[in-house]
């Protein structure tokens, strides 16, 4: 990222790299120390190389990639717990890092002693820790174990204690490396609430395999592959690209983007607006949901044995509609063309928000107990009928895909990231990510006749 001044920049990374020396035999390490640079007994492994970016103050940057891509190495270099082989990482402000689980903890120390140790490493004075120790221990929720050696703790308890310390050191920059992968659901929710609150006032680097967490929490994201930056940009866009690459790799590295021109043409459908019920038309709670036409030329990938040729929301008469209200019955129709013979076809969809968070979706697997085979040149259709949920005022996207195989093992044939756009307005009140239309809501007194 360019253009940020020193005052705006919280983290600056320039040409950063980390190289490790790998020895095939222990004796080679000893020989290397004796002979020096006259002969090389090791192989170089660059865990990270030529990485550069900047993070503005107040920005949250996600870091994604497969295991071994260099994510943790990058965070350790920025946190200062590793020395770079080349380049430089500079931070401006107090840094609190939650890296490897319980790093900085002495297993022979009690939880209380480790709080003092870890908090002092993170820059707090003894008096500051004394003033906050009760709040830290209350946040960790480990009860009487606080005065037991941490070697007796479960991994979840260690994570609770480490996270509790981090939340009380008044950091300007927070570095989190998969810390939420361990722990119960309630504590994970507590951690996410803290991270969302910290996001409002501080700068954060966040590593996670949870694409939903990255897109909902992060402003931008970096995708690392084999120690190098593969892509950097808006979190939703980067996660789409990372997901696409992961799916292609899972199916043997076969797949292409957007494919070659084919003989099919998108079907032209005359669109109309459904009649509105008079009561809902006048209601301030009306949730209008505009449905935009199918775009066949959006970003897509796959092996292209089959292609999606048309996608539309339809009413009960199977007419494509341009607008619906929350709570109405709609049918999502997906038309497809088989380019080659396929033994078993699966068609599915997701609806996701503008950040890329998956709100809901389904596929055809459970609706067909037998394999659904198609022949080359055959057209076919999947239909999903459901009640449109309440959506907050924003833009949403429909992702559709067709695959061959089973639910557990399948190969993507055509995947369209944003086949349809949806724009919701109104709503009248907050519904969360999606609101479930209520069939009935009652409020009544219960008389005790006993």
Describe this structure in words.
The chain is an alpha+beta fold and 450 residues long. It folds into 2 domains: 9-246, P-loop containing nucleotide triphosphate hydrolases (Rossmann fold), CATH 3.40.50.300; 257-426, abc- transporter (atp binding component) like domain (Coagulation Factor XIII, Chain A, domain 1), CATH 2.70.50.60. The protein is built from 9 helices and 20 strands. The protein has helices spanning 26-35, 71-79, 111-121, 126-140, 155-166, 185-199, 211-217, 235-250, 278-282, and strands at residues 9-22, 43-56, 60-64, 86-91, 95-98, 173-177, 203-207, 220-225, 228-234, 256-257, 287-291, 300-302, 306-314, 323-325, 329-338, 345-353, 358-363, 379-387, 394-405, 410-426. The strands form 4 sheets. Strands 10, 11, 12, 14, 16, 17, 19 and 20 form an 8-stranded antiparallel β-sheet that branches. The longest helix is centred in the middle third of the chain and has 16 residues, at 235-250. It is globular. The protein starts with 8 loop residues before the first strand and ends in a 24-residue tail after the last strand. Mean pLDDT is 83; it is low at 1-6, 259-264 and 271-281. This is ABC transporter ATP-binding protein. One of its GO terms (molecular function) is ATP binding.
